[in-house]
Amino acid sequence: MAKPTYLAAAWRGSGAGVLLAGCSPGSLRRIWPGLAIGVVIALAASFVATAYGGPLLLYALFFGLAFHFLAHDPVCLPGIEFCSKTLLRIGIAMLGARITLEQVSSLGAGPLLIVAGAVVSTILFGVALAALFGRPSAEGLLSGGAVGICGASAALAISALLPRTRENEHFTLLTVVGVTSMSTLAMIAYPLLAAWAGLDATQAGIFIGGAIHDVAQVVGAGYLMSSHTGDVATVVKLTRVACLLPVIVVASALYRRSGDTAGTDSAKRPPLMPLFLAGFLCLMLANSLHLVPAAAASAMNSASRACLVIAIATLGVKTSFQALASLGWRPVLMLAAETVWIALLVLAAIKFAL
């Protein structure tokens, strides 16, 4: 008899419906079409994975790519955005219930130094590439921060520091599309690269968490390999996400000192510390102190997997390789070079320093 899928387990015992119950009727009507698309794609992927074997998250991604034509549908878009952003962050936050401080400390100082070095060097590399290609240094900061920290979220956070010009908005869009597309490719390729390089489960988690841009694809790639690799990759990635705070603070201070933030609206700036990171850390701390009952931790784990499968499906719906190709070769080459840089740097550090 086939094993229960992540989605079935989540809907039966995790209280996943509480999230929808907390939405107002108007909000629920607005997000329902896109949410239903994500759920249907995730259920189809879950059925195929259960019946025929194979990676559930990868099936969800590929099935989502086939429905890219719905990405700009005004009826479906609110729910797709809800799944790929809000539901994703809820799923990531609930992952904290399965990770403890003991696991984090077991990684040692080495991975933390790798993360810090990768973030700083990738941002500096991006600024250097911008100068080489004759682009503004702000574009190097934006692309390097997006690749080095947490993909589209970092791009949007850093863009809030820049003047509100059409050029900056265009480059922000390019960066968001670029890092999402490259993270999608990395989610598929990096587990294979980790296996080819002979990395063990912990090293593979450090590599995936340290080299892939977006949180969702890190989680997807990590758990494609094993639960342990996924846990390590999540911890390493969220350590990179935490680097957003000091980077934003330093960049803001530099731009304000130079007078380059004219035209920005501070009221619209995103929070320096993402709420889902705070939620993840709180749950991890509670779990470390044995304050989370085993049944609750199991339910949150199932709900987290369900949220992540749906989020991966809708991220696939949103991904457009044609849009990436149409935005020019120099910025795309910058993003690609930064992606290769951080991957090779992390891989070399793992092989020769750990």
Q: Briefly, what is this?
A:
Belongs to the UPF0324 family. The protein is mainly α and 354 residues long.
Q: What does the model show?
A:
- 50% of the residues are buried.
- The termini are far apart.
- It is globular, with a radius of gyration of 20 Å.
- With 354 residues, it is mainly alpha-helical.
- The chain has 18 helices and no strands.
- It has helices at residues 6-13, 17-21, 25-52, 56-65, 77-94, 101-107, 109-132, 137-150, 152-159, 166-196, 201-211, 215-225, 227-242, 244-258, 275-288, 294-318, 321-325, 329-353.
- Mean pLDDT is 80; it is low at 1-18 and 261-268.
- This is Conserved hypothetical integral membrane protein.
Keywords:
354 residues; mainly alpha; 18 helices; 78% helix; UPF0324_pro; Conserved hypothetical integral membrane protein; cell membrane
